[in-house]
Write a structure and sequence with these properties.
Keywords: Membrane, Transmembrane, Transmembrane helix. It contains two helices and no strands. By secondary structure, the protein is mostly helical.
């Protein structure tokens, strides 16, 4: 029996396709909403240590790449 390669035609309906798309993007929206609420609660200056740590880590990685 010859095997066909690729995806099965009409495996999911249009509604199921939309549901998969929404399910894939939902974590991004929840992450952005939680980050926005964190910034609103703490303020922009409260996140400075995180930015400093990120700069140090990026500098270290950049140093390793040279």
């Amino acid at each position: 029996m010859a095997e066909t390669k690729g995806l099965k035609a009409n495996a999911i309906s249009s509604l199921e396709s939309v549901m998969l798309g929404i399910g894939g993007t939902a974590p991004v929206y929840s992450l952005s909403a939680s980050t926005a609420s964190l910034v609103a609660a703490v303020g922009f200056m409260g996140l400075d240590p995180f930015y400093m740590l990120q700069s140090l880590c990026l500098g270290y990685v950049f140093r390793l790449c040279i």
